[in-house]
């Protein structure tokens, strides 16, 4: 199996675990919000799951890359907006931002780092150095 077709087992496990957790614990959280907000969050959560799955299976096509150039900024915006909305208007929203809320935000960001990386690489993926073609002899002569 070549390097380009390898499945990323750690990312696949991450995708399955966090996908199941979001299904099990995330469905009751949006009852207090307007239907449009809840539907948009559901759609973006689905895109996050699909993007993580596509990245973990290493299935990147030009169409997926084009779509994810638009999806990646939405994923980042979704993370920021849901965090702000949850802190300000959630069921247990404190009147003042506490240290606990800041720590929870940092932990959430750390848990989302693999997702951000995966979605960035899906849309704007820069080839790794080992994946790029070697310099030809004419180029290497020019560099000397």
Could you explain how this protein is built, in words?
This protein is mainly alpha-helical and 144 residues long. The chain has one domain (3-126). It has helices spanning 9-25, 35-56, 62-89, 99-124, 137-143. Helix 1 (9-25) runs antiparallel to helix 2 (35-56). The longest helix is centred in the middle third of the chain and has 28 residues, at 62-89. The two termini are 36 Å apart. The mean pLDDT is 78.
Q: Kindly state the percentage of residues in helix.
A: 55-70%
**Helix/strand-derived class?**
mainly alpha
Unreliable residue stretches: none
Total of helices: 5
Give the helices and strands as they follow along the chain. HHHHH
**How would you sum up the major sheet?**
none
Radius of gyration over alpha carbons?
Answer: 19 Å
- State the domain count: 1
3D shape: globular
Topology (SSEs and partners):
Elements: H1 9-25, H2 35-56, H3 62-89, H4 99-124, H5 137-143
Summarize this, please?
This protein has helices at residues 9-25, 35-56, 62-89, 99-124, 137-143. It is mostly helical. The chain starts with 8 loop residues before the first helix and ends with a helix.
Features:
144 residues; mainly alpha; 0% strand
């Amino acid at each position: 199996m070549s390097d380009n077709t390898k499945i990323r087992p750690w990312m696949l496990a991450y995708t399955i675990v966090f996908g199941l957790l979001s299904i099990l614990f995330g469905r009751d959280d949006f009852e207090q919000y307007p239907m449009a907000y809840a539907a948009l969050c559901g759609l973006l959560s689905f895109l996050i799951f699909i993007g993580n799955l596509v990245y973990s299976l290493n299935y990147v096509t030009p169409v997926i890359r084009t779509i994810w150039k638009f999806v990646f900024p939405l994923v980042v915006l979704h993370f920021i907006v849901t965090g702000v909305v949850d802190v300000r208007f959630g069921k247990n929203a404190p009147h003042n931002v506490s240290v606990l809320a800041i720590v929870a935000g940092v932990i959430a960001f750390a848990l989302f780092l693999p997702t951000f990386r995966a979605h960035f690489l899906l849309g704007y993926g820069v080839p790794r150095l080992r994946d790029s073609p070697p310099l030809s002899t004419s180029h290497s002569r020019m560099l000397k």
